[in-house]
Write the structure tokens for this entry.
Amino acid sequence: MNNQLMGVINLIHEPDELESLTANRCLATVPFGARYRLVDFTMSSMVNSGISKVAVFAHTKYRSLMDHLGSGSHWDLHHRQSGLFVLPPVADDMSDLRKGDLFHFFQHRDYFLRSQAEYVVVARSHMICNIDYNLVLADHLAKGADITVVCKRQSDHLCGKARKVELDSNRRVVGMQDHYGRMQSDLVSMEMYVMKKELLLDLVETSLAQGQDHLVRHAIMSRLDTLHINGYLYEGYLGIINTITSYYRNSLELLKPQVWRELFFEPGPIYTKVKDEPPAAYLEGAKTSNSLIANGCVIEGTVINSILFRGVKVRKGAIVRNSIIMQNGEIGEGSQLDHVILDKEVHIEAGREIRGVTDAPYLASKRKVI
Amino acid sequence: MARKKMVAMLLAGGEGKRLGVLTKDLAKPAVHFGGKYRIIDFTLSNCAHSGIDTVGVLTQYQPLILNQYLGIGSPWGLDRRDGGMSVLPPYVKSKGGTWYKGTANAIYQNMGFIDSYDPEYVLIISGDHIYTMDYDQMLKDHKEKGADVTIAVIEVDWKEASRFGLMSVDEENRVTDFQEKPKKPQSNLASMGVYIFSWPVLQQYLIQDEANPRSSNDFGKDIIPAMLGDGIKLNAYPFRGYWKDVGTIESLWEGNMDLLEDQPALNLQDKDWRIYSVNPNRPAQYVSEDAVVTSSLITEGCFVEGRVHRSVLFNSVQVAKDAIIQESVIMPGVKIGEGVKIYRAIIGEGAIISDGVTIGKPDGETITVVASDEYVDSHSQSLQEVE
């Protein structure tokens, strides 16, 4: 167990721009990869790194988050020596909700003070990866850095948006800009920061005193000269998911066997809330090709280049292509879907034909009947 | 301790000799079944859905994996403050203590456990059968009939009747006669090994049976005949639905194949009667461009590039290109190499079948079994046995 490091999953102001997928849920609980929610990847990485206390700073639309995380038992965080702490905003009035993450960290500073851990890793939920934070911490210590930010060299972001980072030859961060900045760099920040807990609390207090309330934009980006900010280079698969196109394109990346093997297994497994779905049933006449199928699915029709979440039914003669069908969706007899994303429990009646295109997949909201 | 209406005692100590290599290191109730379950999941899920929250699981033979699997019973909702699941292995007492000599003796040795909940009724079930059944309905029938014992029975094929313990009943379903595996069956109502006893009655017979040195201490052979002889009110509860004893290689294979019908008799999809199990937590299964999968059940973590027809694949099975799997049951974590052909077989957990090997025959009469963790290549012994 890693008592040196505590985990913070920071959902404060995480943009919820996935159209109807984030209409009623925060980005962290957007379903992804046939059975997961985005937050599962950060949660599992932390737990697999031996982090025994994880705090999730919830912000808005967090009903699905509470439901999903529960007591933390699915991540083994429900023990006497471990814990999951879901910390919703402490706000005197609604305007407090708009304040930045440092304000919310301050409101929950007792949580940080009570922890015995010396170091903290602050991460977000929309950077899909499978990472060992022990390696990040070891690098942080070896470099004697004040803050270590996890970076990834990536030329095509598949329409995801991320901060860009520039490093010197010693991997010290010398430049950092928001995604719309003009800086030319193929290094992106994965928005994961390791530092001493003491430093984080110090940044919280000094920044707030100066009227600044954002961890990265204010506290870190203004201190590139005064603090030693180290860049750790992550080599594994990274999906940046904060637009609907990036969601769609990264989902289809999972159909590459090498991505499937890497993201879901190495260095540790990805955990999620378990459901007691039976094995997937492929009936007589089913045709399935290059697809990811979750338990509980019943396939009588044809599924090509697609992702089916748990409990999806594809009836006879239906053809599903290049599509993502979330939990309990039902595709009626003879229907044809191409480049479509269906949120949970969407029912497509028999004989429908629905088409989107690669950069603009057709998106149906939860429980819609078409 | 809070009083419980009915306590369930689940017999899970069976060795399962007739399952051969599949139970070499494993108790029979822990044998994998149906793509993601173990046999015991069906009875434990029945308890959960029947509102039974106190279950004693009697273990004896090779309990290591079974114990680990059961844990504190959380997958079946049995991690309770009062009651819940208790695993009950034989134990040492001041006067020695012994192994469980028979099914009745196993309960006898745990009378203290049952008494601590002071129940009115005790449900005796075994972890060897595949079925879904509401024990609460059975209890209702037991009370309505004012019975001392209620035995669940199912109609079986007359041709197969002599394999079972058979009940003859009158028009009110009162048991008039009982024959254990008779050569000439008088009835085709087979005992399912599911009993509800009014606890004081059972207690008395357990003590009596224990005092009899000639008894084999078995419910079917000793307790039920003794009760019948004494005129105790034995009620038969007819069950309609799927029920299968999967105690042999053939029946285990058949039970799995039964799930592959388009409308299977045992519906795993029933949302109101989910079969609970310890979930392996693996990613969704990947079916490649070259794969052909029909009439099969496939579980999470599988990676399929070959042809799979009428088969059951447990979690994390890998099927390489050009492999053909037909009418087979592939246990968790099996790796199947390129061009492998598997027909009518059961492949044990973690086995590795190397490229080009053929196992079984498409129209073979017997079921071929490969043991857990076995490595099979074209030179290996087990393959020669097959051919």
Q: What stands out?
A: Residues 159 and 246 of chain A are 5 Å apart (CA to CA).
